[in-house]
Amino acid sequence: MHVFVCAGCGTELTAPVSQVALPVHAHHGSWQELLPALMEPATYAVDPRPTGPPWRPWSDVGADAAARQGIYAPVPAVSFGARNRIVIAPGDSRCMTLLLEQCDGHCWGVDGRAGPNLACEGCGRAVATRIDDCGRWQTVWLEPDAVLRRPSVLPPAPPPDWDDLAHAEHRVPPVDPDGSWNRRWETAVGVALAHLVAVTEDRPVVLPSSLVTDLLGHAVGRYLPTGPDARTVGLAGPGIGTPRPRPDVLLVPRHPVTGTPWRPPADDADVVPLDNGVWAFLAHPDETSPLPASGLLPDGVLRDDYPLPPRPWRPLTPDDYAFEYTLVRLPAIRTPRLRRYHDGHRP
Fold first, then answer.
1. Which of 70, 229, 242, 327 could pair with 236 as two cysteines, CB 3.0-4.6 Å apart?
2. Cβ distance 33 to 134 under 8 Å?
3. CA–CA–CA angle 306, 310, 315 (5° rounding)
4. Rounded to two decimals, what is the model's pTM?
């Protein structure tokens, strides 16, 4: 585990934290909704891409400079902010105070639009940005040039193994108690579909006859065409192996610590990485399906589950912004076929 300290005076700015993969939903929230903390307590993640201000219009940046920033297709604005910002849960921050003149926001909190808004209590140096406005995950982003990482006296927890993803605590249910789709699912599916479009080059796909089709079929239909010469897609990963015959494309989990996708041994199949919590639910679902069953109960049979499980009131719809955000950051988007897809796609 590590503690981050002020690079100016050495004041400890965080509780002991251990590194995990950056959540795929880190930059995708939900408009006009109060969201919880992005990170689990005692964890941190690093975003290797430029994030935050300053922003420059695509027309001023150009394709070559944008590609150096990790953007491969036109977007309204390109970030020229710092790389390798460190994100923690707000509850793990220490010895920082708000810079009130930097606390702009949309309505219910601060959104970091003006840059760092937290200063070290020891020396007054701007060191981090607190974000907690509506529609944004609650976070504290440490500036990489303002902090230093130091070893903690606490021993690190053992990292999860691939096989640990089968445990119930890793599963993220797709439906919230109020019947709405879980925000993490909506984002994760949007991100995964961008990878699927890139891997298949906008060709039809066939999903397996399973919970994957039940939950993702509507979403896939929004982004990919139907027709002949479809590529087959299957769910694969630790504990379930690879389907036989092997599909053309495998839906696999991202490791929760390293962020690397699972791959079958000695197999170079095309893979589409899924959020590990979403994948874990698809691979090892609860006994109760999140979708209503068709038909009626037999005569004389009464339900004995109470309260009734939450049921969604509409099909799962991916986060369009997460889809677009991911797609323009995949180098494959520069191919003529995918560029035409991007320029003409309107979900």
1. 242
2. yes
3. 155
4. 0.87
Closest to 182 (Cα-Cα) out of 33, 45, 43: 33
pLDDT given for residue 335 in this prediction: 93
Angstrom distance (rounded) from CA 338 to CA 340 = 5
Reading the block at residue 208, the tokens are 């397996």
Q: What is the pLDDT of residue 305?
A: 58
- Which residue would you say has higher pLDDT here, 53 or 87? 87
Alpha-carbon gap, residue 81 to 54, rounded angstroms: 6
Average pLDDT, the chain: 88
Give residue-wise pLDDT tens across range 47-84.
Answer: 999 988 889 999 999 999 999 999 999 999 999 999 99
Spell out the SS3 assignment of the chain: CEEEEECCCCCECECCEEECCCCCCCCCCCCCCCCCECCCCCEEEEECCCCCCCEEEHHHHCHHHHHHCCCCCCCCEEECCCCCEEEECHHHECCEEECHHHCCCCCCCCCCCCCCCEEECCCCCEEEEEECCCCCCEEEEECCCCEEEEECCCCCCCCCCHHHHHCHHHCCCCECCCCCECHHHHHHHHHHHHHHHHHHCCCCEECCCCHHHHHHHHHHHHHCCCCCCCEEEEECECCCECCCCCCCEEEEEECCCCCCECCCCCCCCEEEEECHHHHHHHHCCCCCCCCCCCCCCCCCCCCCCCCCCCCCCCCCCCCHHHHHHHHCCCHHHHCHHHHHHHHHCCC
Tell me the per-residue pLDDT of 128-158, one tens digit each, with 9 for 90 and over. 999 998 888 999 999 999 999 999 988 777 7
Q: Which two tokens stand for residue 58?
A: 């695509």
The pair of structure tokens assigned to 204 is: 């039809």
| Calpha distance 75→325 (Å, rounded) | 9
